[in-house]
Design goal:
alpha+beta; 24% helix; two-stranded antiparallel ribbon
Amino acid sequence: MYIFGQHVLRETAEEIDYETYPNLKELIDNMFETLKRSEGVGLAAPQVGLPIRLFIIDLDTISEDEPQYKGYLHTFINPEILEESEDTSVMSEGCLSIPGINENVRRPNKVLVAYTDENGEDQERWLEGFEARVFQHEYDHLDGKMFVDRLSSLRKQMIKKKLIAMSKGNFSAHYKCKPNR
């Protein structure tokens, strides 16, 4: 897992061609395995060092408490947000690339999205609630943004020392991380 402070997390990711991207299925499978081991709900390709427009979401991990997400494992290739609702909500977010920091983030409650799925099929649909939030969080990674960028100046200032320490390799995580250089 790439951690805050690493350049790939701040790059704008490039679109890929579903048909020609090398070993795409293997990459997706490996990302789901990495996500499972790290006990997260979403993982973007930049978090594993690849500046491409691809992320995965596994909400099956929370299906015991949220039965509507049973079997929810989705891949989003070259996703786009086409429209977002005016109504928003605030929820605590964390990130596998920023271990140990959780902050309240305001996001739209609904988003209309377009993407290519793991089978190469183009999709367009509305997402809402937690599914929309996770999608937006992972989508930010593809544009070189992280949830801490959405915080107020005051909140950013309050966690600044932790982020600087993290970028220097001073953090703890229960999953394998790529050292900052």
